[in-house]
Amino acid sequence: MSDNTLRRLPTHEAYNELLRAYDFFNAKLFAGELPSCLITLQREKRTLGYHSPKRFVDRDSGTQIDEIAMNPSYFSIRTIKDSLSTLVHEMVHLQQTYFGKPGRRGYHNLEWANLMEKIGLMPSDTGEPGGARRGQHMSHYIVVGGPFDNACDELTDLEFTLSWMDRFPPYQPKAKKPISPDGKGFIDDESPYDVEDLEDGEPELDDEIADALKFVTPPPKEPVNKSNRCKYRCPVCKTNVWGKPEIVVFCGGADCKKAEFTLVEK
Fold first, then answer.
1. 3-state secondary structure of 142
2. If exposure means fewest CB atoms within 10 Å of the residue's CB, which of 100, 112, 231, 266 is most exposed?
3. 101 near 111, Cβ under 8 Å?
4. What gap in Å lies between CA 143 and CA 188, rounded to an integer?
5. Domain enclosing residue 252, as ranges
6. How far is 111 from 183, CA to CA, in rounded Å?
């Protein structure tokens, strides 16, 4: 057997896994009604994924198709189920584009919320029970025992995985919130998980994430001032400004008498 035969094909593997998941959930959760789309990997800041209607066009025929983008930067610091819930979240946007009436300018309307809830992804602007079910910037949480949760368990039982992870995720993973008494787990599609103190000590990372961290290099827990900017404050009116180190700024406030801003933090 030649070396070429043994050589892995990472691009083929990564995209085929996402396509396999798309086809699986399309059959299980959407009755196979969703049209084909072009799945891409994109590193958008603070975005786990997005849906872009009719983003691609065929060079010969002019056929237009939608894009569903996934951010691989988060694959190592979220569970596979969490990442797949983002894929299905975007599939709901695609579903609404073709079979419903999407809100204007990306607004997540009531129809979208009902479609999400139907497949077991509960819409919430906070990513937790009690959050608003519709709005401009929305998150969701997985309903334990719901259609998505059960379908995802079935898929992962078929030895499904996301083989390739970005080695440099955007933040240190934090422990997931414990399962709530009402049987719902939490997923936040907008920002990192919050860490809650438990009676028995600090919550632990999911085993799957802990294993993944052996191969990646997350940034330090303490935030780093990459912009090299410092914070200055007027001693009179308390107005804050940010600028380069060692600059001199005078306040123009009516009662501040051109007071010099003082350094607050670097």
1. strand
2. 266
3. yes
4. 13
5. 225-266
6. 24
Answer whether residue 218 is part of any domain. Answer: no
What's the number of domains the chain is made of?
2
Q: What is the pLDDT of residues 4-25, one digit of tens each?
A: 556 889 999 999 999 999 999 9
Task: Decide if 194 contacts 174 (C-beta within 8 A).
Answer: yes
Task: Enumerate residues 6+ apart whose C-beta is below 8 A from 5.
Answer: none
Q: Are residues 129 and 20 in the same domain?
A: yes
What are the backbone angles phi and psi of residue 240, rounded to the nearest 5°?
-105, 145
C-alpha span between 98 and 1 (Å, rounded): 47
> Do 109 and 134 meet the contact criterion of CB atoms below 8 Å apart?
yes
> What is the model's pTM?
0.73
Pull the structure tokens for residue 233.
């404050």
- Residues of the chain short of pLDDT 70, as ranges, are 1-6, 174-204, 221-227, 266
